[in-house]
Specification:
Oligomer: single chain
Helix content: 25-40%
CATH class of the largest domain: Alpha Beta
Order of helices and strands: EEHEEHEHEHEE
CATH topology of the largest domain: Translation Initiation Factor IF3
Number of helices: 4
CATH architecture of the largest domain: 2-Layer Sandwich
Strand content: 25-35%
Number of strands: 8
Shape: rod-shaped
Number of domains: 2
CATH superfamily of the largest domain: Translation initiation factor 3 (IF-3), C-terminal domain
Length: 146
């Protein structure tokens, strides 16, 4: 097997028994990193730490990339600006942002104002993102990074 020691030095083709002895002498584990066609590649490392880092990388790559912002049609200017700034930050990181305007009770009579608000949101984010979906009927806009 090809052996990589605990200091990331390539030891080349080594006997399995010899590799195990070396791993035990430094009190670490011998882990097969990849199954090669000719010979497997093994590395001397702390297996618990290796598993932890592998799991951490998987959860980091699987994080949700769609952030959702829910607004009401009569939201204040300060709150509106705060949500726009947050969305700009998320878009610059590479996440997409979904805006949902929720109407309750008598607010349904002013559906046009909610549609205009969606248009304002899309215009405000046009510099950092592009519109993926804009549905005025269900009052949803999704913006993806440009």
């Amino acid at each position: 097997m090809f052996l990589i020691d605990h200091e990331n030095n390539n030891r080349g083709l080594t006997d399995t028994y010899e590799a195990l002895q070396l791993a035990q002498s430094v009190e670490l584990d011998l882990v097969v990193v990849s199954e090669g066609k000719e010979a497997p590649v093994a590395k001397i490392l702390n297996y618990g730490k290796f598993q932890y880092q592998k799991k951490k990388r998987q959860t980091q790559s699987a994080r949700p990339t769609v952030k959702e912002v829910r607004l009401r049609p009569n939201v204040g200017i300060a709150d509106y600006n705060l949500r726009i700034e947050q969305a700009v930050g998320w878009l610059s990181k590479g996440d997409s942002v979904k805006f949902v305007i929720r109407l309750r009770g008598r607010e349904n009579q002013y559906r046009e104002q909610a549609g205009e608000m969606l248009e304002r949101i899309v215009n405000a984010l046009s510099e950092v993102g592009k519109v993926h979906t804009l549905d005025k009927r269900s009052l949803v806009a999704q913006v993806v990074p440009a």
